[in-house]
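Suppose you are handed only these lines of text.
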Amino acid sequence: MANLSKRLQTNVEGNFFVDSTCIDCDTCRQLAPLTFIEDGDYSTVFRQPETAKEELAAYQALIACPVGSIGTEKKDRKVFLEAQASFPLPIECGVDYVGFNSEKSFGANSYFIKHSQGNWLVDSPRFLKHLVQAFEEKGGIRFIFLSHEDDVAEAARYAKHFNAIRIIHRADASAMPGAEQVIDGENSVHVAPEFVCIPVPGHTPGSMALLYKNRFLFSGDHLWWNPNLQQLGTPERLVWDDAQLKRSVKKLLTHSFEWVMPGHGERIHLPHREMKNALDQLLQRRWNLQSLPF
Ligand code: SF4
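From them, the structure of the protein bound to iron/sulfur cluster can be written out as follows.
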């Protein structure tokens, strides 16, 4: 719960504020970009919500914040409850952004996929009654895809509750002892109809992306959209092996997708061709690679 006495000086006056416990995970900036902005090592309120829609988004950010750093001088309980009930937030084709990001995964995003042959959870949010009920109403969880060792959070509790199959790469498997399915090596694996696990070592030895319907790429901390630069990004710090990272980004050119759904950073939807161009430009920028034919 945010503490008014720790309110950052950078917040504009008004109801919503961020306090000094913020870990700069960027969740609030994704959910309410008209209210929150990055300022140094923190997020801050640069503009108070002015419409009902903006207020709802600010409350969604308050609820999703993994460390409870967002507060209000006066809580509007009705809008707060409306915001709480709105999670998971639908994106497209039965894919939801779950919300309730966990501090255990440094505030990483998690996603839910409704599928006729069993639903998926991609990385883990906090384990909360509200989410358990929401997942139960959607038919439970059959698979839990873990993009890498940092974002497992409460996956073990969700797996136990839903009797779900946890999928992780062997090189990061020590973060999830007892995982039911462990992926080896660097070859892509069709784990279920329409679902492909793509090992993308680089950030960690066992990083993986999940490709769904050749449309959605759940990319963990391997790839994200930078809205300020309007370009794809990949880790520059916290890289286990840069040569592997380069190969892993290049590997994605052999796959087709329109959405990048990251653990951190913004998601992006681009037509196939533009997505390949964005990947190609990332390779050129980051590693001076020649443009590749595709
Ligand atoms: S969601 Fe919370 S921790 Fe993350 S940047 Fe916003 S205020 Fe900081």
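What can we learn from it? The pocket of iron/sulfur cluster is lined by residues 18, 22-28, 43, 65-67, 69-70, 107 (CB under 6 Å). The helical segments are 27-31, 52-64, 77-86, 129-137, 155-162, 242-251, 272-287.
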